Structure to design on (230 residues):
């Protein structure tokens, strides 16, 4: 059971969250941006992949350094284990951080951090105007990510490695496919080492078939389930 942490202004709230077996995120090493302007106030949403609270904070610090002269740098992030945070960063309560977070939630994203930078244009927008502006900027960053083709799906999967004789290579490769897996890496040495990935739980049938194929010998080394691109 994960823990959701939400900052609304300066107040923290906790609630339970379940880890899903699949989520969408942004490809490693990429960043998407989106802008929105209202009455000369400029909102710049910057979206990046993160895998931990520390990485999220590092990205927030990077954006704040990038826009030192901005009035506000509003952060929101969601991790795949269910933890999430957002802050209004000095904006009126519930007008910026939560709207930004809601866009990320609505898109089904996880392991992402979005920081929306606001340059004040001299006119107060009111709570409704602020919510619309932060929402629109974040939505535009998501559109930019989609247009760039950097939105990826991460699935809870299991890696299985086995060492087999050359004569068994073709048959084992077919067994991997028949059991719903994919061969990710093959090393040809004295024997053949095949590393395959399966959706978590689907590797059990392959492991059982391999045991039968090897007359009861256990040839498979099964890794711990983790999120990966399948």
């Amino acid at each position: 059971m994960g823990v959701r942490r939400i900052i609304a202004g300066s107040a923290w709230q906790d609630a339970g969250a379940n880890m899903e077996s699949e989520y969408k995120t942004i490809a490693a090493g990429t960043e998407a941006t989106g802008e929105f302007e209202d009455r000369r106030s400029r909102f710049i949403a910057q979206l990046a992949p993160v895998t931990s609270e520390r990485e999220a904070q590092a990205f927030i610090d990077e954006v704040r350094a990038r826009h030192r002269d901005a009035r506000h740098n509003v952060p929101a992030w969601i991790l795949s284990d269910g933890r999430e945070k957002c802050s209004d960063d000095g904006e009126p309560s519930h007008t910026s951080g939560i709207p930004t977070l809601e866009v990320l939630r609505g898109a089904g994203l996880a392991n992402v951090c979005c920081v929306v930078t606001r340059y004040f244009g001299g006119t107060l927008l009111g709570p409704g105007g602020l919510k619309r502006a932060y929402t629109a900027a974040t939505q535009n960053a998501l559109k930019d990510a989609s247009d760039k083709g950097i939105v990826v799906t991460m699935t809870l999967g299991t890696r299985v490695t086995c060492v087999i004789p050359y004569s068994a290579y073709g048959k084992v490769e077919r067994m991997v496919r028949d059991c719903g897996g994919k061969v990710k890496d093959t090393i040809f040495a004295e024997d053949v080492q095949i590393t395959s990935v399966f959706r978590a739980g689907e590797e059990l049938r392959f492991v059982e078939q391999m045991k039968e194929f090897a007359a009861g010998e256990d040839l498979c080394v099964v890794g711990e389930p983790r999120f990966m691109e399948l």
